[in-house]
Amino acid sequence: MTDRNIAQLLYDGAIAVTEGRKTDAQGLLLQVIEMDERNEHAWLWLSGAMDDPADQQIALENVLAINPNNQAARDGLAWLTQS
Questions:
Q1: How far apart are CA 53 and CA 12, in angstroms?
Q2: How many domains does the chain have?
């Protein structure tokens, strides 16, 4: 799979999240992660596609493992722990 395919899957997954199609988004984003487990953006979008706070936390922690400076992931984890 090429970088272009990964980018398209990531884009389609992000659109699915914003449209509320969480199941579709999960499928698309998990395909990206299977091809590139260090794809920070896929993990971040996946956190928004999950309903279970524990799954959201795992996705956000994976973002921070890749990029400890990702402010969106830090904010997301802070929000989850305050809820």
A1: 23
A2: 1
